[in-house]
Design brief:
Layout lengths: L1 H10 L6 H11 L4 H14 L4 H13 L3 H14 L4 H13 L3 H10 L10 H19 L3 H11 L19 H13 L3 H17 L9 H10 L3 H14 L4 H10 L14 H13 L5
Length: 287
């Protein structure tokens, strides 16, 4: 790997070939992001008709948390390649990271993702967008509109390229928790308690469930039923079964009121991002 990197550097900048600079940028990503950026920009300028170089530059800005820059490039490429759903999804992601949820939702209504096995990115972006919109309405105290977005988050639009799984396999604990909070504001205690029961029932049916930020919701639901210690035991068991899981560590620490910072990779989990946003709003946490 080091030898290859040296060979790339020895070439300098004479090559007039976009793939060369895109490939060399990968070698710079871990040790010199300034050079990586320069190479990605050069590749994009050499071949403006290949969407892949724009995508690589947008992803670079994502990793650097320069979301405004990412949106600028993603917007340009979405206009240039309006029928490319991969560019479209990248644009949606950039809009979400810039908190432009209405605009992201508008794109998601029209984008057509080709069905393929394991294609879940579009559906995840859709769910995240609907729930972020629901949170915005909660903040405005528009609780009925919030419920509409929560209901939308449960849908599986055909244009997003992935079929709906069996009902028993769909984890809607996040939607149920938001609905629970909303029904409480609307003073519909019966509907609120049904959401809590749904959360607990899903967890009971999935004995070997993988660690998820939604496990925190299960613990909270048990607490609402008067079983705070049972909620903590559940999270502790998840951590014991998956000691290297950052999400398992985050859920039990958060449940206990302790701070636990996820790495950049783990913090990109869509359910975690939405739930953390709700926590920040609910407890008025300012960083």
């Amino acid at each position: 790997m080091i030898q290859q990197k040296n060979l790339f550097e020895e070439c300098g900048d004479p090559p007039n070939y976009a793939p060369f600079y895109a490939a060399r940028a990968k070698f710079y990503m871990n040790n010199d992001t300034t050079k990586a950026l320069a190479d990605l920009q050069h590749a994009m300028n050499l071949d403006k008709n290949d969407w892949r170089y724009g995508k690589a530059l947008v992803n670079y800005y994502f990793t650097q948390k320069r979301f405004d820059k990412a949106l600028t490039i993603a917007t340009e490429y979405n206009k240039k390649f309006p029928n490319n759903y991969l560019v479209g999804m990248l644009y949606v992601k950039a809009l979400i990271l810039n908190k432009q949820y209405e605009a992201a939702n508008n794109i998601l209504q029209t984008i057509n993702i080709l069905p393929n096995e394991g294609a879940t990115d579009g559906r995840q972006l859709y769910e995240e967008t609907q729930l972020m919109l629901a949170l915005d309405e909660m903040k405005k105290k528009n609780y009925k509109q919030s419920l509409s977005y929560i209901d939308a988050a449960r849908e599986w639009p055909e244009n997003l390229g992935v079929g709906k799984p069996y009902e028993s396999d769909i984890d809607e604990r996040l939607e149920d928790w938001f609905a629970y909070q909303t029904y409480l504001k609307l003073k519909n205690e019966k509907a609120a308690q049904q959401m809590v029961d749904n959360i607990i029932s899903f967890t009971d049916a999935k004995q070997n469930i993988s660690p998820s930020s939604n496990d925190l919701i299960t613990a909270w639901a048990l607490q609402k039923k008067g079983n705070k210690e049972q909620g903590e035991r559940f999270l502790q068991q998840q951590l014991e079964k998956n000691p290297n899981s950052e999400l398992a560590q985050w859920t039990i620490n958060t449940y206990k009121g302790k701070n636990f910072q996820l790495t950049n990779e783990a913090s990109t989990n869509s359910n975690y991002k939405v739930l953390q946003q709700w926590i920040d709003i609910e407890y008025n946490i300012i960083y």
